[in-house]
TrEMBL record:
Family, per entry: Belongs to the autoinducer-2 exporter (AI-2E) (TC 2.A.86) family.
Signal peptide: none
GO BP, sorted A to Z: transmembrane transport
Membrane topology summary: Multi-pass membrane protein
Keyword Transport: yes
Species of provenance: candidate division WWE3 bacterium RBG_19FT_COMBO_53_11
Protein name per its UniProtKB record: AI-2E family transporter
InterPro entries documented for this protein: AI-2E-like (IPR002549)
Transmembrane residue ranges: 7-26, 32-49, 61-82, 131-157, 197-229, 241-266, 278-297, 303-324
GO cellular component, one term: plasma membrane
Length: 331
């Protein structure tokens, strides 16, 4: 039996509207990204607000306490580590050629070395000429960060009202689906961020203690790099080890080996103890799937895509499970 498909005016209008919506989302992608990040932060902090509400504390008061405690912790840690971090990072950058020289000398003469040196010099000149552009980029990033914090605060403040308004717009069956999606988002996305923050802190502290015990220079910025790169799953810890290994092997071969051992031990502890217990329940992806998702995000949107690839995949996974359950229930 032959099937005939008819394209109606309604189908054309829906298709045009969908394309227009996609085009608009692309044009306001920074707004969409900031809202998505604020939503993840809000979902991560909301359980603490809910616990305060169970203690008969009004939600606005709980939001103020949780949000400003969060800000105080972030700003306090930043202020405490900012001065030594800047000083040690500056020394590390200044002394980087000295660290690289023994490594390069051991490799022998490098072809096109003079051309490479000229290219680096020209890039340094170009960097100096574009200092205003760099300053403008820093200011725009600060504005983006402040916008995300502002949206996070209002998400926390109005989250329950927002959910209630959306629920009232739906019929009974759709309300059940919507509430299930929201609960999954609160559990998985919020759990992912809380686990990610805990993972970054634990790895950063372990690396700092190990580097400090080994007497490695620039232990603080190297530990901060190790903690921050944990936000990039799978490949982040490998990338964070590179500058520490450069410093270690430039100091002595034996110290470089011990630094390598330290990072391998931390990586094994992370993979065998921390990640399965902290991140496994929230993410639920296999290591191979996680790696493919990160590579796809990095290929499409760069570093930001690699960082946000896992939470986006979690959200799409939640929506896909809901759609499959809905289709199954209709049969």
């Amino acid at each position: 039996m032959n099937r005939h498909y008819e394209i109606t005016p309604r189908t054309i209008i829906i298709g045009i509207a969908l394309l227009a919506a996609i085009w608009i989302l692309i044009q306001i992608r920074l707004v969409v990204i900031s809202v998505f990040i604020a939503l993840i932060l809000g979902l991560a902090l909301d359980p603490m607000v809910t616990r305060l509400k169970r203690l008969h504390l009004p939600r606005p008061v709980g939001v103020f306490l949780v949000f400003f405690l969060f800000l105080a912790a972030v700003l306090g840690l930043t202020a405490y580590g900012f001065t030594p971090l800047v000083n040690e990072t500056g020394k590390f950058i200044v002394n980087l050629p000295q660290f690289l020289r023994p490594v390069l000398d051991s490799l022998g003469p490098i072809p096109f070395a003079s051309e490479l040196q000229q290219q680096l010099a020209s890039q340094a000149t170009l960097l100096s000429a574009n200092i205003l552009t760099i300053a403008g980029s820093i200011v725009s990033n600060i504005i983006f960060l402040l916008t995300v914090l502002f949206l996070t605060f209002y998400f926390l403040l109005d989250w329950e009202n927002l959910k209630n308004r959306l629920v009232k717009m739906l019929d009974h069956r759709s309300r059940t689906r919507f509430q299930g999606i929201i609960e999954s988002m609160e559990k998985n996305l919020g759990g992912w961020l809380r686990g990610q923050l805990l993972l970054m802190v634990v790895v950063g502290v372990l690396v700092y203690l190990g580097l400090f015990a080994l007497g490695v220079e620039y232990a603080l910025p190297l530990a901060v790099i190790a903690g921050l790169f944990e936000v990039i799953p799978t490949i982040g810890p490998v990338l964070s080890a590179v500058p520490a290994l450069l410093v270690g092997f430039a100091t002595s071969f034996g110290l470089g080996i011990w630094v390598l051992v330290l990072y391998v031990v931390v990586q094994q502890l992370e993979n065998s103890l921390i990640v399965p217990n902290v991140m496994g329940r929230a993410v639920g992806f296999s290591p191979l799937t996680t790696l493919l998702i990160v590579f796809a995000g990095a290929q499409l949107f760069g570093i930001g895509g690699a960082v946000l690839s896992i939470p986006v995949a979690i959200l799409l996974n939640i929506l896909a499970h809901d759609l499959l359950s809905w289709n199954h229930s209709r049969r």
